[in-house]
Amino acid sequence: MMSWVEPRDVRDWLRRVFALRPILLTLLISSIIILEMRFDWIERSIGAYLVTTNPSRPESGAIWEKGRRTLTARKTLEKIVTDRQVSQREARSASSLFKIAVSIAPGDGVMLSAERFRQLYLKVPPSIAQEIMSPFDLLQIASEGRWRRTYVEKTVSGLAVYLLDADNNVLFQIDVPSDVLMQLKREDTAPVETLEGLPNFEQRIYTAERFFEALKAFPEEMRRSMLPHPEKLLQISGRIVRVGISDEAVSGYIDLGFEVHDGNRPRVVLIPGHEWAVWRLRSFLEERGTSLNLSAESSENWRPK
Amino acid sequence: MTPATSLIRQTISLFYLALLLAGLATVWGVGFFFYAVRDLPRVPEPLSRIIETPPTEIFAATGERIMVLGGQEAVPLSRVSPHFIQAVIATEDHRFWEHHGVDKLRILKALWVTFFEPVKVQGASTITQQLAKNLFFSFRQTYTRKFREMLVALQIEARYSKRQILEAYLNQIPFGVGAHGIEQASRSFFGKPASELNLAEAALLAGLPKSPTRYNPYRHFQRAKERQKTVLVRMAAVGYINAEDVRRVFKTPLSIQPRSAETRTGSYFLDVVLKRLEERYGPEVLYHGGLKVMTTLDPQLQSLAVESLQVGLAKIDQILGITDQGKDDVNNSEMYPQGALAAVQTNSGAVSALVGGRDYSKSEFNRAIQHNRLPGSGFKPFLYYAALESLKSTPATLAVDKRVTIPVVGAPDWMPRNFDRTHEGPMILKQALMKSVNTIAAQLVEKTGPEAVIDVAQRSGIVSPLKPVYSVALGTSGVSPLEMASAFATFATGGIRHEPFFIRRVEDSLGRILQERIVGGKRVLDAGVTYQVIDMMQGVLDTGTGSVVRRLGFELPAAGKTGTTDDYHDAWFTGFTPNLSVCVWVGFDRGVGLRDVRGKGITGGRGAAPIWADFMIKATGGEPPREFTIPENIRFENLDPTTGTVADDWTRNPIRVALRNGQTITKPRQPSTIIEEDLSPE
Q1: Measured between CB atoms, which of B135, B504, B512 is closest to A81?
Q2: Over 80: is that where the pLDDT of B587 sits?
Q3: Is residue A18 part of a domain?
Q4: pLDDT one-digit tens code per residue, B384-424
Q5: Is A66 on the interface with B (CB under 8 A)?
Q6: Residue A25 is part of which domain span?
Q7: Is residue A93, in this structure, part of any structural domain at all?
Q8: Pair A39, A112 in one domain
Q9: Phi, psi values for residue A243, rounded to 5°
Q10: Are residues A211 and A273 in the same domain?
């Protein structure tokens, strides 16, 4: 029983101090302290507890922030690399120079091997290939032995092709303008038999006679802008029956479609004209109210001389 | 009550009071524990995750690694010198192997010092606590942060072995000069792996993390040595070594390797590279994406450029009468003239060296790129090209150095004066450029119009906005040294322009190409006319305003032009060989002209050309002479510079001029009529 009366003398004090309970209490406290100093049990307990709560705690602090940034960086890089690889893959599997041009976004480019470019160049019809680059120039560069790779870049005015050495120095630069690209596009597109097969020409199909009469009304210089390569039409066997004007302008050019009959089956030949000039021709034709949708039989034939 | 009773009573009271306080402290501690634990950060598993970030590495054109950003070069504990491990443990936390995250005795000692010896500071953080702080917490000193840091340390100790903790710690501690982790530090300071560190080196490195700036051995070697001694003494106190070892090791000479480009904390060239990478990829990718960046930097040329500029500026300091006093004071940096140097490979546009000021550590402002200063007469080559291209003039055309007044619509008449305020009368255009005669340049720009000059400058590579006024021909629109070097490189290649660039290729950490430079040139100037301008500019070096270059011993074929602006605010020299185009600018950042102690101004020929010469002599050392390519339509004539007639044996100081096919030498006439006739538009 605890005595609540203050001890009266030293002996009483000593008896109370050295009683069982105080000694046990002192021993308990001392052993707690000694055991903590010896075995770090508080630290261990707290540490063990914190380990159990670790998964539910926030990912905060410098190391996690760094981790997040690293993740963002990896994702960004992966996207850049993937886009580039897709573009390269498309370019490598493309069957023509035009298809490569289609696969590249403006301002971007793809790297091809020298051999791959040579293959693509050989697929281009000789008349267009000559416009892109003289085969003799290509032969000379190939024979020098420095040409390793080719960089094809989409530009505002068409394509820029750089023939490169191993250190990426440009050995030769080729500019492929938009009108040549359109010619390449035509070579790539499956042949169409009549102008009705081309939706872009709907409502703008005229008889050959009317078309060439309208063309004749313009001065020679203007006509050259409307139909820059008339000699190509002259090379075609057969007769031109109808002419259509596309409503789609690409890089400042609009296609003119010439429907040609040569006795076997009809076909359409496309030739690009300068946009501004073709619009004037079209306005002229429409002002005259000559916009027709005539069949080949009802039109008067016009044969190039 | 007897005294003994009283004493016992007080003792008992104190005991219970202490017990009460301890109880209260325990209750408060438990409450604070749960408060602090609420948003305690999660510890990553495994701990090695902290070293998984790949570093972004920047390489010079030679393949030498010049900078590492982010990431850590981690090594297992088995590949770290035991000397270093002992040194770190003895210095930072000698009871590391015994405690369980916190060192209670050290805390008690620190508390004692804090309360009873306020002047002294005693740290008590264990290695584990330092690791926790570095991984999760800011460096703001608060009791809450300290407590949370301690809790994380306890968790780390409970989850990981001592070896794992030590390994993580050693691989992330900062040593300064951009080195994080022992492997990077060992390679940066001693050029060897961490496993090969000897005791002296280990002791030096172990002392750095306490204050990497204060003990930076490159800047404060003596302090670093003192710190090394402290580490050695600690090692002896802990029992790793004995007193004799301390003395012996302290005397061991340290072979700290010269500060390589990689350990440089920053440079003007790298700043440009980082800025361009950040603009293209963003800061996350740059600092955490592990890019491999191949730059155009030539480390040898870069160090020569830094050296030449610093030596040249020191000489200018002497000429200006500026003493060394206060030179280290950053705030006083405006008291000293600054300088910039840009070196561009002419055949590609690759920037080989770039120095944007006299000391990057004092001013990071890049004067080679960001500082558009008036080029003065340095702009005249563009005028002369425009004149040779659009007028009937040739380098042999006779003009008159005289007072000129050029009417300007809507503004006062323009009356340019020569630099020396004198007039020499008739002379051929080549001589006029060599002597940098302003009055003849003014007559030329009046004929060509400023637009023609601007057109040539822009075609050549000047991109800064240029004002369409007559005086543009005398360099009154600001341009940067890099622009000048790049535009003059277009002359050096005979008129083919290459865009200046710093980065050749960028790859990701797996070696996949992200970006590569296509090095292509575009003809922007006529080869024949360009050669005529080159020939005239060769005259500037041989006998004209830049002849100091020859006097200083630079002998290779080269061309260039000096430039000095009003009141000597800017001194320029831009020159080139067929391979390398280099521009040097010298001047105060603002307000003050370059004048020597006698008040005489410092021109481009006196201030910038010697720096150019010093750099070029070293940069081209051992190169065989290579002449500029002479186009087929060029022929040469020796002329009398004052009459423009073909020189004979009696002609004094004849000048060789380059003429294009079809250009003829005029017969002697009255100079005043020649100007009107020969400078008329073609």
Answers
A1: B512
A2: yes
A3: yes
A4: 999 999 988 899 999 999 999 998 888 888 898 888 888 88
A5: yes
A6: 10-51
A7: yes
A8: no
A9: -130, 135
A10: yes
Mean pLDDT confidence for B605-634: 94
Mutate to test the interface with A, among B288, B493, B508 (most CBs of A within 10 A): B288
Contact between chains at B517 and A168 (C-beta distance less than 8 A):
yes
Question: Are residue A267 and residue A218 in the same domain, yes or no?
Answer: yes
Q: Which among B104, B156, B518 has CB closest to A168?
A: B518
Single-letter amino acid, residue B191: G
User: In Å, what is the CA distance from A193 to each residue of A190, A198, A234, A242, A265?
Assistant: 10, 9, 19, 12, 7
Interchain CB distance below 8 Å, B42 and A43: no
Q: Is the ipTM of this complex over 0.85?
A: no
Any bridge partners for residue A269, and if so which? A258
Region of residue B462 (left: phi > 0; alpha: psi -120 to 50; beta: else)? beta
Average pLDDT estimate for B5-10: 78
Establish if A25 belongs to a structural domain: yes
Residue A99 falls inside a structural domain: yes
A143, B148, B155, B166, B502 from A43: Cα distances, Å: 77, 13, 9, 19, 55
φ, ψ (nearest 5 deg) of residue B215? -105, 15
Pairwise CB contact (< 8 Å): A80 & B514 = yes
* Tokens of residue A60, six digits: 């905060």
Residue of A46, A60, A84, A175 to mutate, interface with B, max B Cβ within 10 Å: A46
Mean pLDDT over B339-343 rounds to: 96
Whether residues A229 and A175 fall in one domain: no
Residue A101 and residue A119: Cα distance in Å, rounded? 16
Same domain as A208, residue A172: no
Same domain, residue pair A153 and A199: no
pLDDT tier at A300, thresholds 50, 70, 90: very low
Report the gap between the CA of A183 and the closest CA in chain B (Å): 27
What pairing do the DSSP bridges indicate for beta strands B56-59 and A267-274?
unpaired
Q: CB contact, 8 Å: B72 with chain A?
A: no
Beta-carbon count within 10 A of B677 CB: 11
Are A263 and A196 found together in one domain? yes
Q: How many domains does chain A have?
A: 3
Domain finish residue from A181, A205, A223: A181
Q: Are A174 and A97 in contact (CB under 8 A)?
A: no
Q: B348 to each of A146, A168, B99, B619, how far by Cα in Å?
A: 17, 10, 62, 18
Q: Which residue has the higher pLDDT, B5 or A247?
A: A247
* Same domain (yes/no): A177, A227: no
